[in-house]
Design brief:
By secondary structure, this protein is α/β, with parallel strands linked by helices. 22% of the residues lie in helices and 29% in strands. The protein has 6 helices and 19 strands. The strands form 5 sheets. Strands 1, 2, 5, 6, 7, 8 and 19 form a 7-stranded mixed sheet that branches. A 5-stranded parallel sheet has the order 10-17-11-12-13, with helices on one face. It has a 3-stranded antiparallel sheet with strand order 14-15-16, with no helix packed on it. α4 packs parallel to α5. It is elongated. Bound molecules: NADP nicotinamide-adenine-dinucleotide phosphate. NADP nicotinamide-adenine-dinucleotide phosphate binds next to α4.
Length: 305
């Protein structure tokens, strides 16, 4: 059985920051990442609120810079999905890549997955007009009409990006007020391509082989209507990636991991960092801070061991 002092699950900003801090402390560790480094950053066009980049920076560029920095240190990594964590008294076991890996510390930085609307045809028409990523799929809708669903920072930020490509964009939100920051609200409300459709929820996505519209219900009047669109981009928040969580791990009501301010979970030696952690502010800058804090706390834990 392979053995490490620490295993980091996830290669997003939290995982990369944790890796940097563990590497510099001389800890023998492994990073398990199922896709490529960067996490949600790779799906973001331009980041305007990461300190140090007054002109903004492309999501993939910041991800590359972080990875380049981390890779100046030596550590093991595997590309696979963790199947299970089995907590133990002396050490924990991770099952990944068909192997059992023994470790004293686990830093879970596995991030989040897109929340689904759970309306008819959403799953069936995924990739055929339904999308959760404007940067990946926006180009397919050049000069066409689309709807964006949601009222948070993601929905409005992605609407601003899509408005440069599409002819018309309906921004459908279930309340009268957007949740997003003022800077995004102002940019959307000033944008002639974007038409807010408020107090409205999607009741179904219309289309046989590809999307040709959405049916919406006005929650104040109860009236149904149809928006003729070729694409529907859904940004209604995120859910925790939790398939491999061990039994007994303390979670909040939404499935995110509860931690102390040192990022420690209720299971000794298991830490959480980034979006997977129960917290209010999910930003790249807070993910990086979580990663550094978790690694520092984990190092102290290892020293006591
Ligand atoms: P969010 O802040 O949780 O917003 C989700 C939005 O979707 C809310 O407006 C919510 O409506 C709506 N919604 C949720 N479930 C729905 C449903 N079933 N049907 C219709 N609408 C639904 O999620 P997010 O925008 O993805 O952001 C997630 C986190 O990342 C936040 O902390 C956010 O600040 C952060 N983020 C930051 C940036 C940035 O700073 N540049 C960019 C993107 C994301 P209600 O408002 O009515 O609840």
């Amino acid at each position: 059985m392979k053995s490490y002092d620490a295993v980091i699950i996830g290669g997003g900003p939290a995982g990369m920051a944790a890796a940097l801090y563990l590497a510099r402390a001389g800890v023998n560790f492994l990073v398990v990442e199922k896709m490529s480094h960067g996490g949600q950053m790779l799906l973001t066009d331009k980041l305007e609120n990461y300190p140090g980049f007054p002109e903004g920076i492309k999501g993939y560029e910041l991800a590359d810079r972080m990875a380049e920095h981390v890779k100046t240190y030596d550590f093991d990594h595997i590309h696979d999905e963790v199947q299970q964590i089995v907590p133990g008294k002396d050490f924990h076991t991770i099952i990944a890549d068909g192997a059992h890996i023994k470790t004293h510390v686990i830093i879970i930085a596995s991030g989040v997955t897109f929340r689904k609307l759970k309306v008819p045809n959403e799953e069936k028409l995924l990739g055929r007009g339904v999308s959760y990523c404007a940067l990946c799929d926006g180009n397919f809708f050049k000069g066409k009409d689309v709807a964006v669903i949601g009222g948070g920072n993601s929905a409005l930020e992605e609407s601003i990006y899509l408005s440069k490509l599409v002819k018309k964009l309906y921004l459908v939100h279930r309340r009268e007020q957007f949740r997003a920051d003022k800077i995004y609200r102002d940019k959307c409300l000033d944008n002639p391509v974007i038409e807010p459709v408020l107090s409205s929820v999607v009741s179904r996505i219309i289309g046989e082989d590809e999307v040709c519209g959405i049916e919406i219900k006005n929650v104040q009047t109860g009236e149904f209507s149809v928006l003729d669109v070729d694409g529907v981009f859904i940004f209604v928040g995120y859910d925790a990636v939790c398939k491999f969580f061990p039994e007994g791990l303390d979670l909040d009501q939404y499935g995110f991991i509860k931690t102390t301010c040192e990022m420690e979970s209720n299971i000794p030696g298991i830490y959480a960092a980034g979006d997977i952690r129960s917290k209010k502010c999910r930003q790249i800058v807070t993910a990086v801070g979580d990663g550094a804090t978790a690694a520092t706390a984990a190092y102290t834990y290892l020293e006591h061991k």
